Amino acid sequence: MRAQGGFTLIEIMVVLLIIAGLAYIVGTNVIGRFGEAKIEETKIQIKNIESALKLFKLDNGFYPETQQGLMALIQRPTSGREPCCYSRSGYLEGDKVPLDGWKSEFIYIGPDQTGDGTYEIMSLGEDAVQQTEDDISSRAIR
Length: 142
Known about the structure:
Elements lengths: L8 H52 L46 E3 L1 H4 L5 E4 L12 E2 L5
Antiparallel strand pairs: 1-2, 2-3
């Protein structure tokens, strides 16, 4: 009698199960790293914005008000407290305020609302809901 070549159904199922397990492990690790990368990107953007805010204060003697927001770093404010020595080129490169790692706008709270003469920059994180554990605040990463 001749032995027949080929795989049995059980052998094929075992191979598919192994492949699925490997795909799950690799996928989980990649997705986890992707999430970490977005968090790090957001922290870097916050640091860049903080540098621009410090330059704004150095030139003008105060941080922008909450109402003026981060737009005050790319366009001279025309309402609220007006800067005396605004840089012609603004304080951020480009013509727009950067977004967080999830492509959402940062929330800026100026010294008029913090009550301590400083500011806070916040990202609402992946869930885009305020006051949840994935929020990222400039005060927490200093």
